[in-house]
């Protein structure tokens, strides 16, 4: 490498504009409205400093006039701001066909839930009783709906299912032992490991059985004077198939009752209504768990139930009240927006309209024929776009750690752009506005309309037609 010519470097550096000059450029004035003056000054400094360092290293890269340098700084500021915004949380079109997509925000909310959240965003009756004008019960309505829909005596709501498990174990098992089958000691996505949670709560894990087979006798033999709880954890996104055995919840309930233990089921996703018709027969239906004798059941608000992030706890009234009175409940309690979304979503279930109103269930129930009709409609709008389009048979997914072996049939739109690799096309979609998140299958970008809202179709078609495919 040859050393830069000192005279050239000095001449180049003299061309550098001041930050004030940079801030007076048209680009800076435009950006200031979005970024604010303080942030923009930082961005301008960073852009100017980048150029200064390049000039000092003798890399003028053609920026040999003051105007060229200023233009380059403007472009870098625009790029920096755009880059910063890409990292912001924003709406995306989920074209992956994964219904409860953890990375894309799990369950999309129903219209009623969105409206309820908006209404609650201002002042609301979170802890206010309109009849008496006095303090009311926080989340009372959502809790009573939840109890009613699950057939449980009582319910309690916290931030997510992980905190629900943490609360239940802390209050009902800490200092003692909880018995769990080795077949249920799994890690669920998002770093949730039940043995770690147990350890945190000061509960001793008593493992019984083997990975594939655990018998009632195994549980029975593990009971001692320190045992507080029998714990059943739904293995969610993990399946042991073949030579397997586990006692029924009913049998565990009988055992727990006879020994004075609490039977706690962490159902994970769980379902409020039977989804057997959609072959989700492995998902615990919460009211069946209650009927089969679980004392406490926890599940997530934003998985198959289709509402916002929440940890839902249902079960025996005496136990629920112990959870409510514990200081940890205050630490884990949910926000008013969560109650709003839950109340509205549970309202859809109660009216018997969940399959029409709750997006997760609507998407689950969508037939391949319906998706094909929508796909044909969208493909027609892509004529003249230059994209090569083909409808192919494929599979959607449930996601969110539920039913890993259930893959509803779907009709995919496979896309190819003449001059682009599948990766490059996928990236262009991902970086478009709004971002479209698609999958790649056999070297082609595929779009699954199961998870695309019908009112997003025109936007998606327009966006695909506009894609620069050279
Ligand atoms: C998903 C899941 C959790 C964690 O739920 P979050 O609502 O994400 O905290 C806990 N237990 C089981 C069995 C799960 O499937």
Describe this protein with a few key phrases.
single chain, 470 residues, 4-stranded antiparallel sheet, 19 strands, 17% strand, globular
Explain what this protein looks like in three dimensions.
With 470 residues, the protein is of the alpha/beta class. The chain contains 20 helices and 19 strands. A seven-stranded mixed β-sheet has the order 5-13-12-11-10-6-9, with helices on both faces. Strand 10, helix 11 and strand 11 form a beta-alpha-beta unit. Helix 6 runs antiparallel to helix 15. The protein is globular and about 90 Å long. The protein starts with 5 loop residues before the first helix and ends with a helix. Bound molecules: pyridoxal-5'-phosphate. The site of pyridoxal-5'-phosphate (PLP) has 16 residues, from helix 8 and strand 11.
Brief overview, please?
The protein is α/β, with parallel strands linked by helices.
Q: Give me the count of strands.
A: 19
Contiguous uncertain segments of 5+ residues: none
**Major sheet details:** 7 strands, mixed
Distance between the termini: 37 Å
Strand percent estimate: 15-25%
What hetero molecules are bound to the protein chains?
pyridoxal-5'-phosphate
Structural class: alpha/beta
What percent of residues adopt helix (DSSP H or I)? 40-55%
Show the helix and strand layout.
Blueprint: H1 6-14, H2 19-24, H3 26-35, H4 37-56, H5 66-86, E1 93-94, E2 98-100, H6 111-121, E3 128-129, E4 134-135, H7 140-150, E5 154-158, H8 161-172, E6 177-181, E7 187-188, E8 192-193, H9 194-201, E9 204-208, H10 216-222, E10 227-233, H11 249-259, E11 262-268, H12 286-291, E12 296-300, E13 311-315, H13 317-325, H14 327-332, H15 336-350, H16 354-357, H17 359-365, H18 368-380, E14 388-395, E15 397-399, E16 409-416, H19 422-430, E17 436-437, E18 439-441, E19 444-448, H20 457-466
Parallel strand pairs: 1-17, 2-15, 6-9, 6-10, 10-11, 11-12
Antiparallel strand pairs: 3-4, 5-13, 7-8, 12-13, 14-16, 16-19, 18-19
Helix pairs in contact: 3-4, 3-5, 4-5, 6-15, 7-15, 8-9
The structure holds pyridoxal-5'-phosphate.
Pyridoxal-5'-phosphate is lined by residues 160-162, 165, 188, 190, 192, 233-234, 236, 266, 268-269, 300, 311, 401.
